[in-house]
Amino acid sequence: MAEAPDGLSGTVANLHRNLKPIADAVGTLLVDGFHYLALFAIGATTVWSAIAAFRDMVVRGRADLTDILLLFIYLELGAMVGIYFKTTILPVRYLVYIAITALSRYLIELVFAEHRTGTDVIIVAAAILGLSFAVLVLRFAGETSSNLDAGLQSGEG
Asked: How far apart (Å, rounded) are the C-alpha atoms in residues 114 and 97?
């Protein structure tokens, strides 16, 4: 009778050992499926929005500088989605580029459309400068870590 619990626990342990890889595979499939679905939705929305913005420019018969910068924002979003799709790594620098472009667009609207000057312009310009510095830091940190990784892989580190 003492063998029954050991046999049962052994059976349960085997069942758990066999079920874990299946559960991991199903979980990975669901997460990857969600990522692909979300990426396609974001990509399609970006293309749709870019086409709508371009159509509005064609209907107006002209494109302002802010319109062109908006198209650059869509381009950067599309590139970011493409890079994430290929590498599953979110390029943070692209988000900063988008923020810089959006702030530049806002700055142009402040100065040219609303004819505002003063503190608002200085704050937006300072934000653009701060984000530009962040890109510099991210690029330097990325190159340093890439060089370090390459050195470690070649046995130099």
From this structure: 24
pLDDT digits (tens, 9 = 90+) for 55-99: 999 999 999 888 999 999 999 999 998 888 888 888 888 899 999
Alpha-carbon distance of 80 to 116, in angstroms, equals 33
**Cα–Cα distance, 41 to 70 (Å, whole number):** 19
The half-sphere exposure of 25 on its side-chain side, counting CA atoms within 13 A, is 5
Residue 103 in contact with residue 127, Cβ under 8 Å?
yes
pTM here?
0.68
Q: How many other C-beta atoms are found inside a 10 Å radius of the C-beta of residue 97?
A: 20
Closest among 84, 104, 86, 108 to 96, alpha carbons compared? 104
